[in-house]
Specification:
- The complex is a heterotetramer of chains A (about 375), B (about 350), C (about 170) and D (about 140).
- Chain A has one domain: Cytochrome-c3 Hydrogenase, chain B (Orthogonal Bundle), CATH 1.10.645.10.
- In chain A, α5 packs antiparallel against α6.
- Chain A is an alpha+beta fold.
- Chain A has 15 helices and eight strands.
- The two termini of chain B are about 30 Å apart.
- Chain B is about 70% helix and about 0% strand.
- Chain B has 14 helices and no strands.
- Chain B has one domain.
- Chain B is globular, with a radius of gyration of 21 Å.
- With about 350 residues, chain B is mostly helical.
- In chain B, about 45% of the residues are buried.
- Chain C is of the alpha/beta class and about 170 residues long.
- Chain C has a single domain, classed as Beta Polymerase, domain 2.
- Chain C has three helices and nine strands.
- The chains are: A alpha+beta (about 375), B mainly alpha (about 350), C alpha/beta (about 170), D alpha+beta (about 140).
- Chains in contact: A-B, A-C, A-D, B-D.
- At the A-C interface, β6, β7 and β8 of A face β3 and α3 of C.
Chain lengths: ~375, ~350, ~170, ~140
């Protein structure tokens, strides 16, 4: 007699579409998913422990390796936490340059999102187009700090070097290119009926679920919750800029994609304002060569491309942090994976991995 | 009765052989062997050409240069690929169903090779111009389901199994609209004979008379040959490579060969059934027109494949059964009405 | 950054919970609470409409050698307020109520804290190691942690105490 | 109408099919490296170097292995300057730490090697070789 049976499919850690080394144990009933359990730790490097034996200044390059496609945002989070701990006032120009870099990196990170999403949907061409445009931003980073991904540009007290004319000019060129770029994405991805059919009404995260799982970043905004730390906390120079927070309607894969597309637009908007009003002045505060923050602890969070990135630093008064904890958005967002995949098809699971946009460097820390 | 360079050459060859051997049966056998060899060579060459073509076109669409190291402009890249594939270690995974696993790639190649016998390459140049040509052709192409399923089942891998099941679902699902779409052509021609179908297009190509059938055929052909956006069988971001996940080296190359042979098949079929086969203005010989049209079709299929994302299995199946099949049936009805009106007039 | 929780409300909480303490002199005083009353305090913080701390922003533990300290950073989206709750735990047997009973989204963070710091969360739905290998013995973020040596035994990766290095 | 988006997508790829390509023929054609580019070997100006070891102290990963000798006149000399590229994360902290600006990158990113040992080199030796070539 014929009978059917559920089976477990181990997707990853070596699989074409698991974004690094994420392993997901998918329980399948035919092609229907009845459960998905993420298994992590393949990229665990112990950055929190490493930081305990490095001085504050030496810790900064390690934050590059957390979320390696938006290194600038990680630098920013760590540096701001240390500045809060040590009461360092950052010069205005440095704040603006930080915003420019962080927003450029947000766009670059969303390029990776679009690229990997389209690749997972089966259109390798889309990936190349997104990465082609990301390359322009990486070239900008190469100009300003000499590295493309692991920037280590934002430092405690300011930035590593002043932004050159060349950088500002090329950034302006890129910002002018953004509308054409988004138009091309609209024509090849957004307007495409197959994309729409693949993504609309799949892997829905409701408002309640998004709050329940403490999600953050574009993922929670796609569910329609207005929660953007740039707007709430107005850290750094973000208070000076006028920008909107794009929100999704129902929290399906399509909304998560559209929210990120619109965020590219808003980031470009912020960069434009920052470029127009870039103040003159020093790019680095006076930071003692041997940084010894007073005893105590500080928690500071920034809006990383993937959500709420927090650094909790405990100082014992020495040159090295006593304890650093990193609140990584990716690992928290991953908790929703099971809810997203349940009841969907195997192909939707791949889309769900892509739209939740976890980065294993950050998940495993 | 037939004209064209290829046909005259074949006739001349036959006469020479006749004078040499003298036994008609033996000459027939020799001629068949020669034809079969040429067809197999065409198939192998198509794989070589299309490997490079696919990679170059994909690169051009993706604003890249593409392979450019081997030979001038990367022309010999596919040769290098072949040598690499032959050179590779033949990994036989543990726990497989050995016989099915080994047979699957070989069996897959058989139908892909067989259908070349029914293609009219030029006026009178057709290996087996049987009365039920189109019918046989469809019957043989649908045999590709089995090797895929065999490979998927025998590999003892969950990815392969899912891929195998998908093959069955999609190939069977799209066979039906395809047959009904081609029905219109058969109604117009009044024959299943391939040469008759081409002959019927000497004045008007069937793409003009059967635009609906043409669109349906394009979609179903992409599905039947596992081309993107319908390459669910090997959907590499979901199930890695479907039935060929566990194959390496030459075994994998056979799948590869079958895939490119299928790609050329659908190009040839589109040409033969809708684009007038070898018909064309007189300044070029028939077979040249045939190949030009085929290549344009293949380029079109590759262009489509490299632009669109993959469909999901449920969307694809419901599209086949709920959209394409009704349209195909309507097309049959319209064709019937059209023929009736034409006959009255 | 939103503002910190007001002192007078902290006083209110202190009156409500007898183990609650805070340093009134400090800039942004954290509430210290006994681990028995932690769950109740958190429930009050989350559910009282005038507090409504609906987001557990950060959950972690610090090893102070004599004791462990759990740190919870709560954020109220409604009032844009912060509060830090701290619990001191015994170093020998660190156990604390799991926050998944109130915030389900702390699941992975608690698993991580358990994995790296060795704190056991009571009533946690799925307390397993998350980053380290399942057969690992030890908690890397503890201050007296000594890395284990990987060895392959019978095709399985196992972990062993290092021989006292000379 | 259904299918409009598909045609629009096809138009985009058609445009790129015959459009300008973004990649270059790499070994023949190289992209220029920027002024601040961090990568390659460390170039030590051994005339300027005062052997203060600040660079090694600034290194987060202990990628620099220096030996310093002191001569009769209490002058410090850099005897060897081992840079382990395998440990280096190109954070630029060593170069920024240098009080006399004796360090810089040579910006040559093509230093892949078959053996791990080949990735460690001595900047003092390289500096001497360079001087030898110049003279």
């Amino acid at each position: 007699m014929a009978q059917t049976e559920k089976f477990v499919l181990n997707m990853g850690p070596q699989h074409p579409s698991t974004h690094g080394v994420l392993q997901v144990q998918v329980e399948l009933d035919g092609e229907n998913i009845v459960g998905a359990t993420p298994v992590m730790g393949y990229l665990h490097r112990g950055i929190e422990k490493l930081m305990e034996s490095r001085t504050y200044v030496q810790c900064v390059p390690y934050t590059d390796r957390l979320d390696y496609v938006s290194a600038m945002n990680n630098n920013l989070g760590f540096c701001m936490a240390v500045e809060k701990l040590a009461n360092i006032e950052v010069p205005r120009r440095a704040e603006y340059i930080r915003v420019i870099c962080a927003e450029l990196n947000r766009i670059a990170s969303h390029h990776v999102f679009i690229g990997s999403l389209t690749n997972d949907l089966g259109s390798a061409t889309g990936m190349i187009y997104a990465f082609r445009d990301r390359e322009k931003i990486l070239d900008l980073f190469n100009i300003i700090c000499g590295a493309r991904m692991t920037a280590h540009y934002i430092r405690i007290g300011g930035v590593a070097a002043d932004a050159q004319e060349e950088f500002l000019r090329d950034t302006q060129k890129f910002i002018d290119y953004v509308p054409a770029m988004l138009d091309e994405y609209d024509r090849i991805f957004t307007g495409n009926e197959i994309f729409q059919a693949r993504m609309q009404n799949t892997s829905i995260i409701t408002k309640e679920d998004a709050l329940k799982y403490s999600m953050s970043g574009p993922n929670i905004r796609a569910s329609g919750i207005d929660y953007d730390i740039r707007k709430i906390d107005k850290y750094g120079a973000y208070g000076d800029f006028d920008f909107e927070i794009p929100l999704g309607k129902q929290g399906d894969n399509w909304d998560r994609y559209i929210v990120r597309l619109k965020e590219i637009q808003q980031s470009a908007n912020i960069i434009q304002q920052a470029l127009d009003n870039l103040p003159e002045g020093p790019y680095m505060a006076k930071v003692p060569k041997v940084l010894k923050p007073p005893k105590g602890d500080a928690y500071h969070r920034v809006e990383n491309t993937r959500g709420e990135l927090g650094f909790y630093i405990v100082s014992d008064g020495s040159t090295k942090p006593y304890r650093v904890h990193i609140r990584r958005p990716s690992i928290v967002n991953l908790q929703a994976l099971d809810t997203m995949c349940r009841g969907m098809l195997l192909a939707d699971a791949v889309t769900a991995f892509a739209t939740i946009d976890p980065l294993m460097g950050e998940v495993d820390c | 009765m037939h004209s064209g360079i290829l046909y005259s050459t074949a006739q001349a060859l036959r006469e020479i052989l006749m004078s040499l051997v003298g036994v008609p049966l033996l000459v027939d056998i020799i001629m068949t062997v020669i034809c079969a060899t040429i067809l197999l060579l065409i198939m192998a060459t198509s794989a070589l050409v299309f490997t490079l073509g696919e990679r170059k076109i994909c690169a051009f669409i993706q604003v890249r240069i593409g392979p450019n190291r081997v030979g001038p402009g990367g022309l010999l890249q596919s040769v290098a690929d072949m040598i690499k594939l032959m050179d590779k270690e033949d990994i036989v995974p543990r726990g497989i169903d050995k016989w099915l696993w080994v047979l699957s790639p070989i069996l897959l190649l058989v139908p892909s090779a067989l259908i070349y016998a029914f293609f009219p390459f030029d006026d009178g140049v057709i290996l087996a111009d049987v009365n039920v040509g189109l019918f046989l052709l469809i019957a043989i192409t649908s045999q590709t389901v089995l090797p895929f399923l065999m490979g998927g089942y025998a590999s003892n891998s969950k990815y392969s199994l899912i891929g195998g099941m998908r093959t069955v679902a999609q190939m069977l699902g799209y066979e039906v609209p395809m047959v009904f779409a081609l029905m219109g052509i058969v109604m117009l021609t009044g024959s299943l004979k391939m040469s008759a179908i081409v002959e019927a297009q000497s004045n008007v190509w069937f793409i003009v008379l059967q635009p609906l059938a043409f669109l349906i055929y394009i979609v179903t052909a992409l599905v039947e040959s596992n081309r993107p956006p319908f390459n669910l069988v090997e959907g590499e971001s979901e199930i890695i490579a479907g039935p060929f996940t566990e194959y390496t080296g030459m075994r994998w190359a056979l799948f590869f060969l079958a895939e490119f042979s299928n790609l050329m098949c659908i190009g040839i079929l589109t040409t033969t059934l809708f684009l007038g086969g070898w018909h064309g203005p007189d300044f070029l010989p028939g077979f040249a027109w045939f190949w030009i049209k085929t290549f344009i079709c293949v380029l079109f299929y590759q262009w489509v494949g490299w632009t669109f994302p993959r469909l999901r299995i449920d969307t694809m199946l419901s599209f086949g059964w709920k959209v394409l099949l009704p349209i195909a049936l309507v097309n049959v009805l319209l064709t019937g009405v059209g023929i009736y009106i034409y006959n009255i007039m | 950054m939103g503002t910190y929780f007001e002192i007078d409300k902290l006083e209110l909480l202190k009156a409500q919970f007898d183990t609650a303490e805070f340093d009134a002199e400090a800039n942004e005083p954290a509430i210290y609470i006994g681990k028995e009353q932690l769950l109740d305090l958190m429930k009050v913080l989350r559910e009282t409409p005038t507090y409504s701390f609906d987001r557990m922003s950060c959950l972690t533990a610090v090893d102070y050698k004599e004791y462990f300290e759990m740190v919870y950073c709560l954020y109220s989206r409604r009032f844009d307020k912060w509060v830090t709750v701290k619990v001191k735990l015994d170093h020998d047997n660190p156990e604390v109520e799991s926050m998944t009973q109130i915030w389900e989204g702390t699941n992975f963070e608690e698993r991580e804290t358990y994995d790296l710091m060795g704190i056991k969360f009571l009533h946690h739905p799925d307390l397993r190691r998350i980053l380290m290998p399942d057969n690992y013995d030890g908690h890397p973020l503890q201050k007296d942690f000594v890395p284990l040596e990987p060895r392959i035994e019978g095709g399985v990766l196992t972990w062993h105490k290092q021989k006292s290095s000379s | 109408m259904w299918g409009k988006g598909l045609v629009a997508g096809l138009k985009v790829t058609w445009g790129h099919w015959f459009g300008k390509k973004e990649t270059v023929y790499y070994p023949e054609e190289k992209l220029p490296m920027t002024e601040r580019f961090r990568g390659g070997h460390l170039v030590l100006d051994d005339k300027k170097c005062i052997a203060c070891k600040l660079c090694a102290m600034g290194c987060p990963n202990a990628a620099l292995d220096l030996t310093v000798s002191v001569d009769e006149e209490k002058k410090r000399h850099m005897d060897s300057y081992k840079h382990q590229i395998g440990r280096c994360m190109y954070c630029d902290l060593c170069i920024e730490a240098c009080p006399v600006k004796a360090l810089s990158w040579d910006k040559n990113y093509e230093f892949a090697s078959y053996f791990k040992e080949d990735m460690t080199y001595d900047a003092v030796v390289e500096a001497k070789n360079r001087r030898g070539n110049d003279e």
